[in-house]
Amino acid sequence: MWQQILQSVRSLEYPRRNAVLAPAALGAGGLLVCWLLSRRKIKTLAMGDGWWGSGERPPREKEDETIQCFQIETSDREIQELHQRLDQARYIPPLEGAAFQYGFNSTYLQRVVAYWRNQFDWRKQLEILNQYPHFKTTIEGIEVHFVHVKPSRVPKGQAARPLLMVHGWPGSFYEFYKIIPLLTDPAGQGLNEDVVFEVICPSIPGYGFSEAPHQQGFDTLAAARIFHKLMQRLGFQEFYVQGGDWGSRITTNMAQMLPKSVKGLHLNFIFITSGGLGMLVSLLLGAYVPWLVGLTREDSRRLFPYFEKNVYDLLRETGYLHIQATKPDTAGCALNDSPVGLAAYILEKFSTWTDKSFRNMDNGGLERKFSLDDLLTHVMIYWVTSSIVSSMRFYKENVSKNPNAAPDARVGVYVPTGLAAFPQELAHTPRSWAKKKFKNIVTYSYMPRGGHFAAFEEPELLAQDIRQLVKKVEHL
Ligand SMILES: *[C@@H]1O[C@H](CO)[C@@H](O)[C@H](O)[C@H]1NC(C)=O
Ligand SMILES: CC(=O)N[C@H]1CO[C@H](CO)[C@@H](O)[C@@H]1O
């Protein structure tokens, strides 16, 4: 196509016989080329700027860009106070035979709380949390926390690939603690892999140890911009990004903002606002003739019966979303005041989002894939930082408007993208739907097992899939 246009423009250059027509034709050809070029130019998402600190932005004062080392610490008094609250909790019995269908089974909750009170060793978990280097730095008026792990050894002739990994709700940077060694030290984990990463896991502002925004309007675009500023401050020009849940939307926004900085985007949760007409047609016909509407057999297995699997199930599981997208502070008052309520609210998600059938299990299947130590560590990260309310507000800032009108809905994603579709994810997005938004899907994997908390549940599978993307992008 290009060749042809250039050729025809060139052939217009030498028609000596017609000296008058030539410049006119050249001008028209030039315009055509310009128009085509502008059409080919990739639309990016405006980066903008923001201020999330308390009060007015100080006039023209340069932000302190230093990066400080940080360690997670809690005082004995905080632990004592937590124990007092755990001791004073009150419970009502679950409905007979209800398992997790009405929410967290309070009989099982008492067991979790007894473990928390008597066996859970926060000091030991703190040692685990602090085994990797933590830092804080101020961006747009708030302190941003991140974990930064450099590889201990890099194979000869290789360079470590910087990789930013972003968590979601109700998770934290701790979701990545099992995948970090697989990515930064494959040899130490018995993996024969040349591709080694330098991993940066920030806490979304308002989550865990990142300060909460003091101003309204902190959405995924703002988070994406802040993480770009963080990576720039750390000196990375080009890097990979990975995310699930909110992390998926944030890293996608990063790829839309500065596509040149993002070498590859890997997602284990696929956010699309609408799949257009193609999606509608494939929903109507996909169960009968998947091949005709761009679906694979596996897509159709995961999608249908659609209302059962992807509509009713979603309705049953997303009441929290409506609360958090409308009046987060109200329910948040209770959760921030009661560690038992907080544990029930957070851990219920680790049950059903890992496997929907866990709803029918007395103990929500929680200990099938996770240890209580790991689960309670997540809860503690929210408790000791009082961050549940600010984490919930992120929904308010992102779900209240028309999603199709959001600026990021009108900009495609052109960076090389790897999509990992885990079978127990809340909803399945076939490649043919994702293509509308992600214009350069390099890998699309039907993962054999695992759900919403991919890095936490299936670190080996996720690490493998990230490496697969990097190898394709770099032609290794
Ligand atoms: C709640 O969990 C407890 C402990 O796991 C179990 O014994 C009980 O049967 C469950 N109750 C309901 C209503 O499912
Ligand atoms: C649907 C909605 O309210 N989206 C907001 C969330 O964040 C985007 C940017 O990522 C805003 O532009 C949207 O308005």
From TrEMBL:
UniProt organism field: Pelusios castaneus
Keyword Oxidoreductase in record: no
Family listed: Belongs to the peptidase S33 family.
Xref: Gene3D superfamilies: alpha/beta hydrolase
Name the record gives this protein: Epoxide hydrolase
Its job: Biotransformation enzyme that catalyzes the hydrolysis of arene and aliphatic epoxides to less reactive and more water soluble dihydrodiols by the trans addition of water.
Pfam family, one: EHN
Enzyme Commission number, as recorded: 3.3.2.9
Domain Epoxide hydrolase N-terminal: 68-176
Catalytic residues, chain numbering: 245 (nucleophile), 395 (proton donor), 452 (proton acceptor)
PANTHER family named among the record's database cross-references: EPOXIDE HYDROLASE 1, EPOXIDE HYDROLASE 1-RELATED
InterPro entries for the chain: AB_hydrolase_fold (IPR029058), Epox_hydrolase-like (IPR000639), Epoxide_hydro_N (IPR010497), Epoxide_hydrolase (IPR016292)
Reaction(s) catalysed (UniProt annotation): cis-stilbene oxide + H2O = (1R,2R)-hydrobenzoin; 8,9-epoxy-(5Z,11Z,14Z)-eicosatrienoate + H2O = 8,9-dihydroxy-(5Z,11Z,14Z)-eicosatrienoate; 2-(5Z,8Z,11Z,14Z-eicosatetraenoyl)-glycerol + H2O = glycerol + (5Z,8Z,11Z,14Z)-eicosatetraenoate + H(+); 1-(4-methoxyphenyl)-N-methyl-N-[(3-methyloxetan-3-yl)methyl]methanamine + H2O = 2-{[(4-methoxybenzyl)(methyl)amino]methyl}-2-methylpropane-1,3-diol
Membrane as UniProt keyword: yes
